[in-house]
């Protein structure tokens, strides 16, 4: 007598990942998950003003071929409840509750970008036993010189995007040369790949609170990053105006044994401009 399997097919396309929520101590976190089930997932920490819909599907899908990927909205963002906390340390505490109490994981790998990388650093410093591997892209360390200037840079580029009727990310993430403009428009188009069950957009109040939290992070006393002994991959463009590229090099010096990739002729979104090169590198790093 033969029996047929009733196991659900594995979803490896971020555009088709189901939207889910979990409640922890009165706080509701919105998240998506895809890829094969496993004990140690890759949790994605997203950037300033971003929701679940702001991850590049080309990178997520490459990693989800072999790994369980979980993306989530911090509190006060998208479909998650509450309000954006005053500090990134608090955001790291919220993430810890989501991961350990909400989803029940004792060990994770992290993929992070920009502000998400700052929150990820705070999480690893406070709970080093939680994290096995760490990917830090387009980010810098607590107290990093120039991070506190993000407010002026951000509002300046938003103004330019309004004048040109463009997406602000085309200015914030990419150089304004021909290659950067082309990459920026392609990136924005990829973010539209999911057509149903999209996340709620970021609200202005939450955006403002995130900016202030990043500014505080930049003006804070540096963390002791020598406690990060996990395998760490660091990547950025060579002309990051939001989180200066030299801060990626600073992270590399301070995190023993870390790998550093700097992509040429690219900005804050260098890993998105060079996704064809970066996605397989990140996927291999997280799979080994």
UniProtKB/TrEMBL annotation:
<dbReference type="Pfam" id="PF00561">
    <property type="entry name" value="Abhydrolase_1"/>
</dbReference>
<keyword id="KW-0575">Peroxidase</keyword>
<dbReference type="InterPro" id="IPR029058">
    <property type="entry name" value="AB_hydrolase_fold"/>
</dbReference>
<feature type="domain" description="AB hydrolase-1">
    <location>
        <begin position="42"/>
        <end position="271"/>
    </location>
</feature>
<dbReference type="InterPro" id="IPR000073">
    <property type="entry name" value="AB_hydrolase_1"/>
</dbReference>
<keyword id="KW-0560">Oxidoreductase</keyword>
<protein>
    <submittedName>
        <fullName>Putative non-heme bromoperoxidase BpoC</fullName>
        <ecNumber>1.11.1.18</ecNumber>
    </submittedName>
</protein>
<dbReference type="InterPro" id="IPR050471">
    <property type="entry name" value="AB_hydrolase"/>
</dbReference>
<dbReference type="GO" id="GO:0019806">
    <property type="term" value="F:bromide peroxidase activity"/>
</dbReference>
């Amino acid at each position: 007598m033969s029996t047929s399997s009733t196991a659900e097919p594995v979803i490896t396309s971020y555009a088709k990942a189901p939207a889910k929520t979990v409640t922890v101590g009165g706080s509701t976190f919105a998240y998506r998950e895809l890829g094969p089930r496993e004990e140690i997932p890759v949790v994605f920490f997203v950037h300033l003003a971003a929701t679940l819909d702001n991850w590049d599907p080309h990178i997520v899908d490459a990693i989800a071929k072999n790994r369980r990927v979980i993306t989530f909205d911090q509190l006060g963002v998208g479909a998650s409840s509450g309000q954006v906390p005053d500090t990134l340390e608090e955001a790291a505490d919220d993430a810890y509750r989501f991961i350990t109490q909400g989803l029940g994981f004792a060990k994770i790998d992290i993929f992070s970008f920009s502000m998400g990388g700052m929150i990820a650093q705070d999480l690893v410093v406070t709970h080093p036993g939680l994290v096995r591997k760490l990917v830090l892209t387009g980010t810098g360390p607590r107290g990093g010189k120039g991070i506190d200037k993000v407010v002026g840079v951000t509002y300046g580029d938003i103004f330019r995007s309004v004048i040109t009727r463009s997406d602000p990310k085309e200015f914030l993430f990419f150089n304004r040369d021909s290659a950067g403009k082309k990459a920026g428009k392609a990136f924005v188009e990829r973010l539209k790949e999911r057509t149903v069950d999209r996340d709620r957009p970021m609200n202005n109040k939450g955006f403002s609170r995130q900016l202030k939290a990043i500014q505080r992070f930049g003006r804070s006393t540096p963390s002791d990053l020598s406690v990060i002994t996990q395998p760490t991959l660091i990547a950025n463009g060579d002309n990051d105006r939001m989180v200066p590229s030299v801060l990626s090099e600073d992270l590399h010096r301070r995190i023993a044994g870390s790998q550093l990739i700097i992509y040429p002729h690219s900005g804050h979104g260098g890993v998105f401009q060079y996704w064809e090169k970066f996605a397989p590198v990140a996927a291999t790093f997280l799979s080994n």
